[in-house]
Amino acid sequence: MTTVILVRHGQSVGNLLGMCCGQKDYPLTEQGLEQARMTGEYLRAHYHIDHIYASSLTRTMQTAAPTAEAFGLETIPSDALKEMSGGILEGVSKKEIFENKEYYEIHCTWNDTEDFCPEGGETKRQMRERVLAFLEELIQKHKGECIALFSHWGPLFSICQSWDDPNHAEKRICNMEDGTLRIPNSSITVAELDDDGTLLRVKELGYNAHLGSIVSDSIKGLV
Q: Global pTM?
């Protein structure tokens, strides 16, 4: 059995400012750094991690650092785990997007379709394909081990969506009453897979109770 732990980055400066972040390299806030520390403590107490991979962006590498220190491991950076690129929308506040007709139309089309992206950006399909290909590579490489992936909302949602089975209630990957999935800052999702990568069960899904009073969640229009 292979265990895959998915962790979203802690609160970033971009989250705090309400930005469309994408691959723009925002660091963590002080609260985000504390979330990362508490996440490392929780994972050390409950799991035995063999390998740690993280998006090469600063906010994810900072989130992974306390966990890597706790287990005495190296964090291996990967561009494959980066957030979906927002092109011309990156670094633009969501308030500005909703007040600018051109940006708003681009934003809505990007959000609602698979193969459209802002100029210089990335489509949902492109992002999902790179993330799932990398996950498959890791599952084959680390069969029977526990791997932790520190990433962003888009990639983590894509992974969870790939495990979801809408035809079987017990295999639905959702944690909200309306059937949707919430992935807050520094939240933890833990899945157990068989040797061919088939989902056996999800032990934790978007869990962030370990953060106590410093939970946070950026509103996800896109990235």
A: 0.94
